[in-house]
Design a protein that fits this description.
The chain has 1153 residues and is mainly β. Among the domains are: 37 residues, no CATH class; 112 residues, no CATH class. It is 10% helix and 43% strand. It is built from 15 helices and 57 strands. The protein has a 22-stranded antiparallel beta barrel. A hairpin with a 3-residue loop joins strand 23 and strand 24. Helix 11 runs antiparallel to helix 12. The radius of gyration is 36 Å and the shape is globular.
């Protein structure tokens, strides 16, 4: 209140009135900033009055803590034998009071900022050195206490087990020294949040006593560890749902996207990365497979309880990361929980905690994981000659021309490697984060800022501007909390992300498409005199598109703030509290386009030296073929777009233990959310419906119970409302129930518990909802202008004119309602020897009443919008397996060896398909992701083989062309002979991760893979298929295609197992270009996802400004092993921006303040 009073005092002064004619929001910002400054400990000048009569030290500490901002840290055993305190204090300072309190006591203290650390005094020498023999049995020890990641731990209690009064605490860097202790003592190391560790000195050499390395393990006992669940926190042992957690430290890396670091770390989560373009390189991920015929399968992401984009959070700011997979975990979210939920909480400061400062920096070199192997101009001319000749046509290239392609005369005989001409071998990226957190007795704070910058892979800096595909991102986060009363906590969160993306003027995708289709002989990148070459009809020069069409810069910023309050209501009943959140987010997107055209040129053979196209000095002479084209750059600002999101939540929560046996908790929550329709930047949409906000409401509840840490139950419901449906169908309720039995807590289990430390069974069933791909106000009828008809038969002013009318474009549909996903989960958790852990889940999800289009309706109805119906249905079933092992062997520690396996099958029950021509062409009952394919029987051997086979109706079929199977037996190969084959979605995903450490060294690596997955290389990529002239041709097509012996002179070239069929030009390839199993390739792969080697340097000197400095070298996406060689099997096409391989150097520093 001191800060607020100062602001008000100054505001009321007439002298300062001109400066305070500002909105209250800005005054509030000033107040918060000043509050942060006053939050640091500052009670040392406070004058105090106390009176102690036969008081214990414990009661004295409590009284002082209640009236000051000082906290006491001590072990109750240490002060057990302290003397009663009789002391009167009047108008004295805290330092003087502490001195008087500890005078003549068997304990002493150390003052660190506003924390009083109580420790026992050293034993008097008379008790330890009574004789020479006794003197030989006492020693001085020293060492360091660290956690499992080699981070130093301060304020760890170090005491002798046989004498609790004798001990010390570790210092700032984790170091401790203890003198005059028995040589055979048993030490006990303890700290809040860690498992106590006992250390026997008798087994150590004297040299080792001076350099002890004590590792404390985080207190992750099954009975005490907690996890973040839907709308709260639960003890891990009591969780009955399928919930997985990820250590946030595993998500911190040098790459931009958090989703790429998440890949392969959680059983049941599938991932796919389609592009490596800076800013667009995030992985798509789904939980337990695709479960919607037409709608999205993307999970909900909650950051601090609010719906957000997963890229809105810096991994350095994450406190906890949970994935909710089954109905008992997600039902309370109603319409938002159908696809699973990711729950992220961000870091906050701690009460009475000195500032903690961290910095993360990394720089990386990136290169493409795959580089296409295309033929050069000489090979292109030869293979094109063959394609013409083997189909009875004249060769387009003479031997003389082919020879000149090899002479490197790029002006007249180009030989262009378009990939290398436009794509750099390497590019750089940089990432950083700086954060600080801490708190006083009332206010805690956490603030963070980060950046990511990446230059793209294009060679786009020919002109005065840089048109490379680049990305810059800056983000920040601030979390403030204040205990405004003993029962009321107020929090203010503020976060933002700003990014800008640069692309070539004509877009990245178009350039990549042309690179994949242009041949090496067409024209040079540019002429030797720097001019752009003329482009024949139907062709485009990708080098000119990249360097001569300007650039586009897209800007995006997201600003979010949330105010939350927690009010304890113990005066009503113990364990009751209220939690409220109000949030506002603003998203702005806008685009600036700097666009230009380019003039084209061709060699001038008329006005050149001897008609050579060059002057007397050999310089190229060109003529401008587009002299009237304006090539000046112009600026275009596309209409901005954006969104605003307002969300309010309020929940009444209850959690209480009744004795040692029974625990219960519950909540009831209401929330509402309002946002605008998503209109992409630059579309300039003027539809009125886009100006209407979308509103959602939900009510949720949960009741949990536990008995003796053995039996648990969890009952949830979520009721959600959406404007997508009619008022009578707008609301729907989604319940779930879960049960758990911890067998290892049963009395009969005690004898084997040292071996089987955990055995738990759990199961859940419930329903979660979704609106699917429902249209806004889809239940309402609609009209639209129609073509009209000729009016009248004559005699009127409008006779013979076409009069436009209004027709019904959309039917009224009052029966549309919610999609429902019925989820069942059975789980087993097993722990052995406190080192091995297995988690196994079987699941089956059935998503019913999915909204699909009624494509069966005839076009004669004249409807613009196809009606929908709740007819779609899919089910997914599979297993999630997570196995881990951890163990310490002295200085060597297996932090974890972890294997993850997921099997997932997604089957279509109803998708609204039109009745297929043949029953076997129905997709019903098949897994999602297949395509209609002809079955290839190989290549035709000769004309006799063709004559004795079913007729293939595509042009002239010749030996060496693809032979197809006649499925329906009618003697003809027609579309009725296609069947569904080749799932592009993997059924199996797996990973293996290891993390080892030896003293201060760390080695961690991870491999991930997918199996039972296919890619089609597309018959359309056959050489010279479509245009008859253009096309980048793979080296394998040149090396391994069927060639008639009559052309090659070698019968071995009539290879029945050739990778490519007989060549042809244009329509010659129609037969071979059909989608068939000939072009289907298995794309199973194993990838070395990352490998990291690090060293954690912990300064021994107390004068160093660092707590620890972690230095690391790291590789991401290092290598991929697969039979599929056409492109990176993670991607579905060679046309996409290449995925990146990244090699990084980085440092993570923790400072002392």
């Amino acid at each position: 209140m001191l800060t607020f009073s100062l602001v008000r005092l100054v505001e009321r002064s007439n002298k300062f009135k001109p400066y305070f004619s500002i909105p209250f929001s800005k005054k509030l910002l000033v107040f918060l900033c000043l509050s942060f400054l006053f939050a640091l400990p500052q009670a040392s000048a406070q004058r105090l009055n106390f009176e102690f009569k036969n008081a214990t030290l414990d009661s004295a500490f409590s009284l002082i803590a209640a009236q000051t901002n000082y906290k006491f840290q001590y072990d109750s055993l240490v002060i057990k034998n302290a003397k009663p305190l009789n002391l009167i204090v009047k108008d004295d300072e805290i330092t003087s009071i502490l001195h008087k309190i500890f005078e003549n006591q068997p304990v002493n203290y150390e003052l660190k900022d506003n924390i009083v650390i109580v420790k026992s005094r050293d034993l008097p020498r008379s008790q330890t050195t009574q004789s020479p023999s006794n003197r030989s049995k006492v020693v001085t020890i020293s060492g360091m206490v660290v956690d499992e990641k080699n981070n130093p731990l301060s304020d760890v209690s170090v005491r002798i087990k046989a004498n609790a009064l004798f001990g010390t605490v570790s210092g700032k860097n984790g170091y401790f020294t203890l003198s005059n202790i028995p040589r055979r003592a048993l030490l006990v190391f303890s700290s809040v949040g860690f498992v106590n560790s006992e250390f026997d000195l008798s087994s150590l050499s004297d040299e080792h006593l001076k350099n002890l390395n004590i590792v404390l393990k985080a207190n992750s006992g099954d009975l005490d560890e907690v996890v973040v669940v839907a709308l709260g926190v639960q003890k891990k042992i009591s969780v009955v749902g399928a919930i997985a957690t990820v250590n946030p430290r595993e998500l911190i890396g040098p790459t931009r996207s958090l989703t790429n670091q998440l890949a392969g770390r959680v059983a049941g989560v599938s991932f796919s990365q389609s592009s490596g373009q800076p800013g667009k390189d995030g992985a798509n991920f789904i939980i337990r497979g695709i479960n919607s015929v037409k709608g999205s399968s993307e999970p909900l992401v909650l950051i601090d309880g609010l719906r957000r984009n997963i890229d809105d959070v810096d991994p350095n700011d994450i406190e906890s990361f949970s994935i909710l997979k089954d109905a008992s975990a997600t039902a309370v979210y109603g319409l938002e929980g159908a696809n699973g939920i990711i729950v992220i909480t961000t870091k906050t400061g701690k009460i009475a905690d000195r500032p903690s400062v961290s910095m993360f920096l990394s720089s990386s070199v990136n290169n493409a994981t795959y580089k296409p192997k295309w033929i050069d101009a000489v090979q292109y001319a030869k293979i094109r000659n063959e394609a013409f000749a083997v189909r009875g046509k004249d060769k387009p290239y003479s031997d003389e021309i082919i020879e000149k392609f090899g002479d490197q005369d790029m002006d007249f005989y180009p030989n262009i490697d378009w990939y290398n001409a436009l794509i750099k071998p390497n590019n750089l990226s940089h990432k950083g984060n700086f954060n600080i957190g801490g708190g006083g007795n009332v206010v805690t704070y956490y603030m963070s800022g980060g950046y990511y910058m990446e230059d793209g892979m294009f060679r786009g800096n020919l002109e005065s501007y840089n048109s490379n595909a680049k990305y810059n991102q800056f983000n920040f986060r601030s979390n403030l909390k204040a205990d405004i009363t003993k029962t009321t906590t107020l929090g203010l969160g503020f976060d933002g992300r700003y990014n800008n993306t640069t692309e070539p003027g004509q877009g990245t995708n178009q350039i990549l498409t042309i690179i994949n289709e242009i041949n090496p002989t067409l024209f040079p990148t540019q002429y030797s005199n720097g001019t752009a070459p003329e482009e024949p009809a139907g062709t485009v020069n990708p080098f000119s598109l990249l360097n001569k069409t300007g650039f586009v810069r897209n800007y995006s910023n997201v600003m979010s703030t949330n105010l939350n309050i927690t009010q304890k209501l113990d005066f009503l009943t113990k364990g009751l509290f209220f939690n409220g959140i109000a949030s506002f987010s603003k998203i702005n997107d806008y685009s600036h386009q700097y666009i230009k055209a380019y003039q084209q040129h061709r060699p001038d053979f008329t006005n050149s030296y001897l008609g050579s196209g060059r002057d007397e000095d050999g310089n190229l002479v060109t003529i401008n073929t587009t002299p009237d084209l304006d090539d000046k750059m112009r600026f275009v600002s596309a209409p901005p777009s954006g969104n605003r999101v307002v969300e309010v939540q309020g929940s009444l929560n209850y959690a209480r233990d009744f004795g040692k046996d029974f625990t219960t908790s519950g909540l009831i929550l209401y929330k509402q959310r309002e946002f605008m329709a998503d209109v992409p930047a630059g579309t300039g949409s003027t539809l009125l419906i886009n100006a209407l906000p979308i509103r959602e409401q939900s009510i949720a509840g949960r009741i949990t119970g536990g008995y003796k840490n053995r039996y648990f139950t969890d009952i949830n419901f979520g009721a959600s409302g959406s404007q997508m449906f009619t008022p009578d169908k707008r609301w729907s309720t989604f319940p779930s129930v879960g049960l758990g039995w911890v067998v290892s807590e049963e009395g009969f289990f005690k004898t084997i518990k040292p071996v089987v430390n955990l055995l738990k069974f759990r199961g859940s069933y419930g329903v979660v909802g979704a609106t699917g791909n429902a249209l806004r106000f889809g239940y309402l009828a609609g009209t639209a202008p129609r073509d009209g008809y000729t009016f009248g038969f004559g005699g009127t002013a409008y006779s013979g004119q076409n009069i436009q009318g209004i027709g019904e474009s959309k039917l009224e549909q009052l029966g549309l309602t919610w999609e429902k996903n019925k989820k069942m989960n059975l789980g087993l958790e097993l722990g052995l020897f406190n080192s091995f852990r297995l988690i196994l889940d079987y699941f089956r999800n059935t998503r019913e009443a999915q909204l699909i289009n009624l494509n069966r309706l005839p076009a004669t109805l004249g409807l613009v919008t196809v009606p929908q119906a709740n007819l779609g249905e899919m089910y997914a079933n599979g297993i999630d397996l997570d196995v881990s092992y951890t163990k310490s062997f002295g200085d060597f520690r297996i932090n974890y060896i972890r294997g993850i396996l997921t099997y997932n099958e997604n089957v279509i029950v109803e998708n609204g398909e039109l009745d297929p021509r043949m029953p076997y062409q129905s997709g019903i009952g098949l897994d999602w992701g297949r395509g209609l394919n002809y079955i290839s029987l190989g290549l035709f051997k000769d004309q006799e083989d063709i004559d004795n086979s079913p007729v293939q109706t595509w042009n002239l079929v010749m030996p060496g062309d693809i032979k197809y199977k006649d499925i329906n037996g009618d003697g003809l190969i027609t579309p009725e002979d296609r069947i569904w084959l080749g799932n592009t979605n993997p059924k199996w995903t797996y990973s293996l991760a290891v993390d080892f450490s030896y003293k201060n060294w760390v080695l961690a690596t991870r491999v991930i893979g997918k199996a039972d997955m296919f890619r089609t290389i597309n018959g359309g990529r056959i050489p010279f298929n479509a245009s008859g002239s253009n096309g980048a041709i793979y080296q394998v097509a040149y090396d391994n295609h069927w060639t008639p012996a009559s052309y090659s002179g070698n019968p071995d070239t009539e290879n029945p197992n050739a990778v490519y069929p007989r060549l042809g030009v244009g329509s010659d390839n129609t037969n071979n270009a059909q989608q068939s199993t000939f072009w289907l390739r298995e794309a199973t792969y194993l990838r070395l996802a990352d490998i990291e080697i690090g060293y954690n340097w912990i300064p021994k000197s107390e004068n160093m400004p660092f707590k620890s400095v972690y230095l690391f070298m790291r590789g991401d996406n290092v290598a991929t092993f697969s039979k599929f060689k056409d492109w990176n099997p993670e991607q579905t096409s060679s046309y996409a921006y290449p995925l990146k391989r990244t090699f990084s150097l980085g440092v993570n520093v923790k400072f002392k303040l």
